[in-house]
Write a structure and sequence with these properties.
Length: 78
């Protein structure tokens, strides 16, 4: 690590970011957020059966901005 150099998250730049923003603008739900919504509707036992912890669900929600504004046309579950 070098002090004074700040690297940009690759998920926040380039074509991938542009496509993600366009999908969001046109109401196409992010597949990761669809998974997060489904996991949030499950009980702890159901999550354990799928080898997913509640902490992992929240980590995915934060990573893919699932807690921010919902895309147009994407109904929130729960």
């Amino acid at each position: 690590m070098v002090q004074g150099i700040q690297l940009i998250d690759p998920d926040k730049q380039g074509i991938k970011y542009l496509v993600h923003r366009l999908q969001h603008r046109f109401g196409v739900p992010d597949r990761h957020c669809v998974d997060v919504d489904a996991w949030r509707a499950m009980t702890t036992e159901q999550l354990i059966d799928r080898h997913v912890t509640p902490e992992e669900v929240e980590t995915q929600a934060q990573k893919y901005d699932c807690n921010k504004d919902t895309p147009l046309g994407h109904p929130r579950m729960g």
